[in-house]
Amino acid sequence: MTSPTNAHAAKGSSKPRILTGDTPTGMLHLGHWVGSVKRRVQLQSTHDCYFILANMHAFTTRVEKSTDIRRDCIEIVRDYLAMGIDPEVSTIFLQSEIPAIAELTFLFAMLLPFNRVMRNPTLKTEIELKGLGENYSFGFPLYAVGQTADILAFRPVGVPVGEDQVPHLELTREVARRFDQIFCGVDPQTEDDDYVKHGGALPIPRADVGKVGRLVGTDGKNKMSKSLNNAIFISDSPKDVEKKVKAIFTGRQSPTEPGDVTNALFQYVEAFIDDEARVAELKSRYAAGDNLGDGHVKLEVAASLNKLLDPMRERRKAYEGKDDVILDILKKGSQRANDLAEETLALVKEKANLITYPRVVRYV
Ligand code: ATP
Ligand code: MG
CA-to-CA distance for 190 and 194, rounded, in angstroms? Predict the structure, then answer.
């Protein structure tokens, strides 16, 4: 995160704020870890962290699978806890429990030309990869607008995400600039980091892309994705991890054939083997065809992965069968998230000249 302070620090916290999250379309995988969650765990101590479960957005492609969406919300929290997110420090919450997000989505939809939303390359890729054809719901493109509200409701300075989310973040930044220009009189020439200083209600948040912005799936082709059957999950057993790593496709025939060190297997070597000298050695022998078989490299990758995942498996075990504990974490988190999102909504309504009355959202 580049900005040292957050002009809109949450009540009770002087730390700069971040917001990010996941769609409950399955369980979390290694792509989530390297692309976003690892960064979140690091930022917990220095930032006020908000993590959203975008469950309404899961309905865009799974409207007939609402029980799965519910289950995945709970499993993702289990994955968060396994990976080291601390619910006492960070706020984990449900999108559907934050009414301000839905209200902001409606208003922000007015700030974006329809064609601009449809031009978003991430939406186009998703339509293609998920085989949605012409039959996607009206809510599908609307989710891109909704995501601007998910983020801006929390006025964060940054959003730790994988590379595929950068176009969405750009849309969010456009909404924030437009809002601040139209309703807060901020000069369009203003630098992004100075919008709040110049009277803007909404900061222009930055995408914070991790070291590995796009981890390829075990198919060796597409982004590792929970919807594409090419993922190694955080909750996979050691045996499953080995099996999946063995199946990574490289197309190489023999250990003496010079190998391509930019292939999918070597993306895993770079991302998950910590010993840099060993990585360099593997790369040079593989590239030279120095009798280093794919099978051997795969064994080393699987061993590194299991070393990373073992403590996560242990932590996950502690929450097995404890859905009540997880639901309580979500309730407390959603309450905290509402406190902040309501503050943003009141500010936005005031700036947009909407007649409005003070209100609170409280669970009983
Ligand atoms: P879906 O297929 O349903 O879109 P997904 O696997 O892409 O699921 P999301 O919930 O859309 O997961 O993404 C959550 C976060 O994880 C985002 O910040 C996204 O950029 C990041 N992420 C997901 N997959 C990867 C990956 N393979 N590499 C790096 N980051 C990733
Ligand atoms: Mg995705």
Answer: 6
- The mean of the pLDDT values for the chain is 93
**Atom nearest to 24 CA in ligand 1:** 10
pLDDT, tens digit (0-9, with 9 covering 90-100), for 7-17: 444 456 789 99
Give the residue among 304, 299, 293 at the shortest CA–CA distance from 259. 293
* 11-51 pLDDT, tens digit each: 567 899 999 999 999 999 999 999 999 999 999 999 999 99
The single-letter DSSP state of residue 93 is: E
**Sign of the CA dihedral running 23, 105, 168, 271:** negative
Instruction: Take residue 201 and report the two structure tokens written for it.
Output: 């209600």
Index of the ligand 1 atom closest to the CA of residue 212: 29
Contacts of 320 (CB under 8 A, 6+ apart): 78
List of domains in the chain? 17-214+322-351 (3.40.50.620), 238-317 (1.10.240.10)
342: confidence class by pLDDT, cuts 50, 70, 90: very high
Q: Of 226, 267, 272, which is best to mutate to test ligand 1, by the most ligand atoms within 8 angstroms of its C-beta?
A: 226
> Which of 100, 93, 129, 146 is closest to 348 using CA atoms?
100
206-209/91-94 β-pairing: unpaired
Q: Ligand 2 center to residue 109 CA distance, Å?
A: 21
Atom of ligand 1 at shortest distance to CA of 58?
3
List, in sequence order, the alpha helices (H) in 185-293.
Answer: 238-246, 264-272, 276-288
Residue with tokens 């500010």: 347
Strand, coil or helix: 3? coil
